[in-house]
Amino acid sequence: MQVRGRLIGLGVGPGDPELITLKALRLLRESPVVAYFVAKGKKGNAFGIIEDHLVPQQTLMPLVYPVTTEVLPAPLSYEQVISDFYDNASLDVAAHLDAGRDVAVICEGDPFFYGSYMYLHDRLAERYDAEVIPGVCSMLVAPRYLARRWCIATRACRCSPAYCPMRTSSAAWRMPMPP
Amino acid sequence: MPHEDLKRRLADADAAVIMKLGRNFPKVRQVLEELGLAERALYVERATMANQKIVPLDQVEPMSSPYFSLIIVPGERWQG
After folding, report:
1. In this predicted model, which residue has the larger pLDDT, B51 or A155?
2. Going by C-beta distance under 8 Å and a sequence separation of 6 or more, which residues neighbour residue A34?
3. pLDDT at position A20
4. What would the pLDDT profile of A89-116 be if each residue is shown by its tens digit?
5. Where are the alpha helices (DSSP H) in B1-80?
6. Domain that includes residue B42, residue range
7. Burial tier of A112 (Cβ tally within 10 Å: 0-12, 13-18, 19+)
8. Has this prediction a pTM greater than 0.90?
9. A-contacting residues of B 61-80, CB under 8 Å?
10. Complex-level ipTM beyond the 0.90 threshold
């Protein structure tokens, strides 16, 4: 039986190409398929960070968002359109995994910290081996620009997204709004 | 996140970061002003990318902030 490929959520850091981990770089170069989320007509932030590190023979797999922040005419809903998109993207990724090819899904920052990779992980990780490589996220970079320490000793820090849900507040945590 | 929710969450925190500002920047700045935190906060757009921008909150054009921007609020000065 064909050995199935691994799904790899690969954090590529916030933008500075030197803020990518050695492990992420190695797995990026070893992966026969490199997938990345991207808005229509854009190159993709994550892709821009790693493109100099790609090797020949790799299959590039842009996963193009059908919608980002635009308002959709009824009866289309953002939730349904984006959920269908992630369903289809996970099928495309699964086809490579079934054929024995590892798929690295690159992600700005960290895959499990507001990363789009999670939508594929949720759909595939129960059926395929999945590995998540952490990345430096913008939140960890920002404190260095402060004139003072950010958070110290016993103090608690709070992290919140700013965006509002498009409809009901109960859906707030499930609403990605890619650039 | 609605204004009041955000205010309640931030009022509880020692230090904070508010991510994915986009068009919500004016609301977040308003909340921070109401809590007296705006002055020590910093706006960071596209951190470490070639076109990054780092300025105090009063220098941000209200509707110009992209999705990839955040506000970081340091905790109070504390001797430790």
Report:
1. B51
2. A28, A50, A54, A58, A59, A60, A61, A103, A104, A106
3. 96
4. 999 999 999 999 999 999 999 999 989 9
5. 3-11, 25-34
6. 3-73
7. middle
8. no
9. 66-68, 70, 72, 74-75, 77-78, 80
10. no
Q: What is the CA radius of gyration of chain A?
A: 17
Q: State the alpha helices, DSSP H only, in A7-142.
A: 22-30, 45-50, 78-98, 117-124, 138-141
Point out the residue among B21, B44, B72 whose CB comes nearest to the CB of A162: B21
Q: What is the mean pLDDT of each successive set of 10 residues along chain A, which is 179 residues long? A: 92 95 97 96 92 95 87 82 96 98 97 94 97 95 86 82 56 40
Within 8 A of A167 by CB-CB distance, chain B residues are: none
Fold of A7-142+158-174: Cobalt-precorrin-4 Transmethylase; domain 1 (3.40.1010)
CATH number at residue B63: 3.30.950.10
State the count of interchain CB pairs (< 8 A) between A and B.
Answer: 129
